[in-house]
Design a protein that fits this description.
114 residues, alpha+beta, three-stranded mixed β-sheet, 3 helices
Amino acid sequence: MREKQIEQKLVRAVRAAGGLCPKFVSPGLAGMPDRLILLPGGRFAFVEVKAPGEKPRALQLHRHAQLRALGFSVFVLDDPARVPVILDHTDRVPPIHATSDCNEGESNETNRLT
């Protein structure tokens, strides 16, 4: 199985769970994970997708450690059988909820965080 096939299984499973799984591109910050998992209720995780048996590069491992130190979940996925485990773990992570308006005084409702 190729990396792209594993990635497609992840995306389909996240969508089936009511979430989004966008490809993550971070210009200027190499080594960031490939995908974001965004689940209902403010649940969030990063996923590095690899072909079966492949391992992250040293820079990727460094970025994973940085993200984990900030409190984020980061997974390395090289086996499609692990997709349900990753989704289950992400669904149990405490949600991210903003509790105030980051643009106080502005009337644009699209800026409101709830």
